[in-house]
Amino acid sequence: MFIKPFRSWSLKDNQATDESLYLNRRTFMTGSSLLIGGAALGLAGCQEQGGGYDASVSQSASTSDFVDPTLDLYPAKRNEAYQIERALTDEATNASYNNFYEFGSHKQVAKAAQALNTRPWQVTIDGMVEKEMVLDIDALIRSMQLEERLYRHRCVEAWSMTIPWTGFAFKDLIAKAKPLSGAKYIRMETFKDPSVASGQKQTWYPWPYVEGVTMQEASNDLAFLVTGAYGKPAAKQFGAPLRLALPWKYGFKSIKSIVRFTFTDKRPVSFWEKLAPREYGFWANVNPAVDHPRWSQATERVLGSNARIPTQIYNGYGEQVAHLYKDLGLAETVLYR
Ligand SMILES: Nc1nc2c(c(=O)[nH]1)N[C@H]1C(S)=C(S)[C@@H](COP(=O)(O)O)O[C@H]1N2
Ligand SMILES: [Mo]
Predict the structure, then answer these.
(1) Longest C-alpha distance within the chain, in Å?
(2) Using an 8 Å Cβ cutoff, are 123 and 258 in contact?
(3) 137 to each of 29, 53, 184, 243, 315, how far by Cα in Å?
(4) Distances (CA, A) of 40 to 4, 18, 32, 101, 135
(5) Buried b or exposed e, range 280-300, using 16+ CB within 10 angstroms
(6) Rounded CA gap, 197 and 122, in Å?
């Protein structure tokens, strides 16, 4: 199957903006370049299916016997420093429209994600640290100061939402990890278990999902490790029991259901960068002036409505993060590098 690339200005986001790639399996497996002339690669087709709420989702989540062992920590106190001018995305809308490729390359993954067993759950901290460790998730969460923050989220597919996350500052995890002075990056990894995550049976994807940030980025106040949302432990489809929120970067950087943090001096290559390096590079800072090769990034569709609003540089968080990139230059820190 070969789909001729569209011209970005002619696209509506519900027609074409999707990270999902149509991979020609044979081409992929013979190791040919994925992107030459776009010949091996096309869009998966229409994945966005409106903001319909799937009632079975909240059902399956609430009728399970599982009681989160950290339930007593919620709701955590809101940190008023993170105010937001937008309306919060309705919880039901958010919980039924997710990117979590482990459970399918479409948005209606919530039900399938309930198969993920989030306890027991261990988080490994390794690489360039004083002492490698394996932490039990409940002990880890209880050792951290939880707070609620209202954050914007901008998916590279040009839709956005606003979420009340609960979690702790990434820099507090770094303090616990005691990295060696040579560590420059943190590589993060999601669980891998194709027996519960059927998406991981699609062996042409480079599982497990991997993301990476610089130490400076992870140490920035905004970098937040999420344990909950909407005043309670995070729903599985949000990336329980531990996911990242980097609100100034495109959403794919905010890796879900993390099992490993590796401190390293080598720049990690992410899941998406491996698949399509020209489309999903390391920096991935939100920038309305730089189009994705297949669509415009100038505006975004607000989830749960038909409103389109202008996208802001660094997703509106420039004051907090622009200094991180002043030596690199803005152009270097968008996608595709
Ligand atoms: N492990 C994992 N993390 C992931 C993804 C994924 O497919 N797998 N998708 C990313 C993308 S593209 C986005 S936009 C956000 C979506 O988060 P949400 O479903 O909570 O809105 O999760 C990110 N983290
Ligand atoms: Mo995304």
Answers:
(1) 54
(2) yes
(3) 37, 30, 25, 12, 30
(4) 10, 17, 9, 20, 42
(5) bbbbbbbbbebebebbbbbeb
(6) 18
The full length of the chain comes to: 337
What one-letter code names the amino acid at 286? V
Q: Residue 278 has what pLDDT?
A: 87
- Which among 108, 244, 256 is the best mutation to test ligand 1's pocket, defined by most ligand atoms within 8 Å of the CB? 256
Taking only the tens place, the pLDDT of each residue in 2-19 is 333 333 333 334 444 566
Q: How far is the CA of 119 from the centre of ligand 1 (A)?
A: 20
Q: Is 319 helix (H, G, I), strand (E, B) or coil?
A: helix
Provide the pLDDT confidence category of residue 20 given band limits of 50, 70 and 90.
Answer: low
Contact residues of ligand 1, CB 6 A cut-off: 19, 98-102, 155, 190, 209, 238-239, 251-252, 254-257
Residue bearing the CA closest to ligand 1, atom 23: 252
Whether the CB-CB separation of 124 and 134 falls below 8 Å is answered with yes
Q: Which fold has domain 13-335?
A: Sulfite Oxidase; Chain A, domain 2 (3.90.420)
pTM of the full structure:
0.85
Domain ranges of the chain: 13-335
